[in-house]
Specification:
The protein is of the alpha+beta class. It contains eight helices and 15 strands. Strand 5 and strand 6 form a beta hairpin. The two termini are 25 Å apart.
């Protein structure tokens, strides 16, 4: 027999935020720049004769990231590594094949912060200052540690640096994905791969996986600037249905429940192209891709173009330095809908609910 109180537990809430912007996205980059770990980039283009397939082919050639197997965290605190890749350029690094709710996870953000999301046993052995996880303060079985590798005092204080290296050595090796943006154009981003290879690591060069399809649907419109959050949410839901190749036909007789999309004055069925890239993208590269797409369609008579960006489920931080979790709904991401030089940013942040 099912306990009747089970149905009394409310579902964890999600935070949805709608913002309008005007002009180039680069000048509004602060809205998305602090979303460091991007896994999925989906671009939806309705009813356009312009070909963008060549652009996405070039993305596969130029959007390179690296996989390093069995990385010992002690090497991230090496003075030569900090000087070359943490304090110069922007390093983005994330552990993979680890689960944020029960495993140890690590990440380095472009501002030089090393984040550790670790269990109680590891924290007690680590000997570094941290805080109890926001989500398990009562249980106390998960801890969050932040280390500023870009701190100028860290390199000058050899005793502190030696202690940090000895503490990080306690952690088991991680398999990580990483990308490095050099401070100058004449410096090759692959320098970091060469560095790890020369110190004995197995480094693999990776590129995003591309999938595309075309859907023939009735295309709804959206108001710029957005004034109704519910209308934007309904439109974003429709975009999700299109990107997943769902059946959008409204057949009330076939199913007890059917999906009904946003209202549209368009009776004609028109093509909508969807391009989906899976990989490891920095916030800088995401902004560049969006800017390039906006530039290509600046003079095109399209009603709108949508870009969906989804983060990694098991990253130690999500937005900025905000701790991430995956107990119930750990998906974080945003949808950008634009028309020429104006647009809407629809953010989805997972629940900040504290578990007892």
């Amino acid at each position: 027999m099912q306990c009747p109180e089970v149905n009394d537990f409310p579902a964890p809430g999600s935070l949805f935020n709608v913002e309008n912007f005007q002009g180039a996205l680069q000048s509004n980059s602060s809205k998305v720049d602090d979303f460091h770990y991007n896994h999925l980039l989906t671009v939806i283009i309705p009813d356009s004769q312009k070909s963008v397939g060549n652009y996405f082919d070039s993305v596969l050639e130029n959007e390179v990231f690296y996989k390093v197997n069995d990385l010992v965290l002690e090497d991230l605190a090496d003075p030569s590594f900090i000087s070359s890749f943490v304090r110069n350029g922007k390093l983005t690094l994330l552990s993979i094949n680890t689960r944020i709710d029960c495993d140890n996870c690590i990440g380095v953000t472009p501002n030089g912060k090393l984040y550790l999301s670790i269990n109680k046993e590891t924290y007690q052995c680590l000997g570094l200052e941290g805080v109890t996880s926001h989500f398990t303060k009562t249980l106390g079985n998960k801890f969050f540690v932040c280390i500023d590798l870009a701190d100028e005092k860290l390199l000058s204080n050899k005793k502190k640096l030696r202690r940090l290296k000895s503490r990080l050595k306690i952690l088991k090796p991680f398999t990580v994905l990483l990308s490095w943006e050099p401070p100058k154009e004449d410096v090759c981003p692959s320098s970091i791969a060469k560095y790890f290879s020369e110190v004995g690591y197995n480094v693999k060069q990776c590129v995003p996986a591309l999938h595309s399809h075309t859907a023939n649907v009735r295309i709804p419109g959206i108001q710029f600037p957005a004034v109704d959050k519910l209308d934007v949410s309904t439109f974003v839901e429709w975009l999700g249905m299109v990107s997943l190749s769902c059946d959008l036909e409204q057949d009330e007789q076939q199913y007890l429940s059917s999906y009904f999309g946003p209202d549209t004055d368009c009776e004609d069925v028109k093509p909508v192209r969807c391009f989906r890239l899976r990989g490891f993208f920095t916030s800088t590269s995401i902004i560049q891709h969006i800017e390039n797409i906006m530039s290509q369609f600046k003079d095109e008579p399209v009603n709108w173009i949508a870009v969906y960006v989804q983060g990694f489920s098991d990253s130690p931080v999500a937005w900025g330095n905000q701790e991430h979790h995956y107990f119930a709904n750990g998906d974080n991401g945003y949808v950008l809908i634009f028309q020429k030089d104006r647009g809407i940013i629809y953010k989805h942040q997972c629940s900040r609910k504290m578990y007892k």
